[in-house]
Amino acid sequence: MTIQAESGFCLDGAGLAALETRLREDMTLLCRPPGNWVAGRERDGKAVTDVVIVGAGMCGLVAWLALQTAGIRNVRIIDAADAGREGPWLTFARMEELRSPKQLTGPAFGYGALTFQAWFRARFGLEAWEEMYRIPRPVWMDYLVWYRKVLGVPVENGVRLETVKGDDELLRLELDGPGGRETVHARRLVMATGRDGMGYPTIPGFMDGVPEGRWAHSSDEIDFAALAGRRVAVIGVGASAVDNAAEALEAGAAEVRLLIRRREMPTINKLMGIGSYGFTAGFAELPDEWRWRIMNYSFVSQTPAPHGSTLRVSRHANAFFHFGKAVRNVRG
């Protein structure tokens, strides 16, 4: 069976109030969210939280929605960042546009009215949607702020998870926030901390002894204006390296040289295939050997920096790409 989607969207340019009404109607018709079905319990005279979500970026928000939709309502969601600053989008993500196609449904969780496309078209209209190639990074953050607001996600900002310990069949969490230190018992913990949650940046050994202030990692807060008139070296040619090189050039750096260990730039993103439903649904069922082979092949092949990001650097006459130049030593 072939289903042909209508080209028109009845809420094009109608404004967010109309879209929010549409979303509420859809949720009402689907009887969502249902009532809480999980029996409450106590530990040490205090109510146990069924689920604590750490991180209120895109994945944390949709995890909260999924739990509400499943009738699990006793949920807390925390984030160390200030409200509206969750995730990397307004901090160390420095690409001009998102790298994924604009029509992907993202954290909509099956609600058409929750998609970025619905939000953008209701706010700016169909013509603006068709003219846009990729989603501007700050606009994506605007959408996530609206997503949180329209769903009423009760994010507790400025709250950090300090420790997690087992306590019989529960988890004992130590939280630190504006109200001070707090002990929370929870049945389950969802870590939605993104790539930050994988640990600290890996700094090569050749940077040992180089004074702070003379270098930065791409995930750091960087004063690019201070690089005006300076000669800048960028180690690597991945997406983050290229984005930061572009920021330095646009801030007026005298020159930027990218020092690249590999002999040539990768041109094909071998990981693009993981977006298919077959891969997503079937990957977990593959033998360990095949899962390792697939992912290792993709990592060894390496992912190229986005085409637009690379052009953002190469269009500058004072930008230089040096391939086959592995860094051995750096002196401050």
Strand order of the largest sheet: 5-4-3-8-7-6
Task: Report the C-alpha radius of gyration, rounded.
Answer: 23 Å
Low-confidence stretches: 1-5
In the CATH hierarchy, what is the superfamily of the largest domain?
FAD/NAD(P)-binding domain
Helix content: 25-40%
Query: Helix tally?
Result: 9
For this structure, what is the CATH class of the largest domain?
Answer: Alpha Beta
- DSSP strand (E) fraction? 15-25%
Note the main sheet: 6 strands, mixed
Overall pLDDT confidence: 94
Task: Please state the structural category.
Answer: alpha/beta
Helix and strand pattern = HEEEHEHHHEEEEEHEHHHE
Using the 3D structure, state the CATH architecture of the largest domain.
Answer: 3-Layer(bba) Sandwich
- Tell me the span between the first and last alpha carbons: 66 Å
Shape: globular
Structural commentary:
Mean pLDDT is 94; it is low at 1-5. The N and C termini lie far apart (66 Å). The radius of gyration is 23 Å and the shape is globular. It has 9 helices and 11 strands. It is an alpha/beta fold and 332 residues long. It folds into 2 domains: 16-197, 3-Layer(bba) Sandwich (FAD/NAD(P)-binding domain), CATH 3.50.50; 200-267 and 304-323, FAD/NAD(P)-binding domain (3-Layer(bba) Sandwich). Strands 5-4-3-8-7-6 form a 6-stranded mixed β-sheet. Strands 9-10-11 form a 3-stranded parallel β-sheet, with helices on one face. α6 packs parallel to α9 (307-314). 29% of the residues lie in helices and 19% in strands.
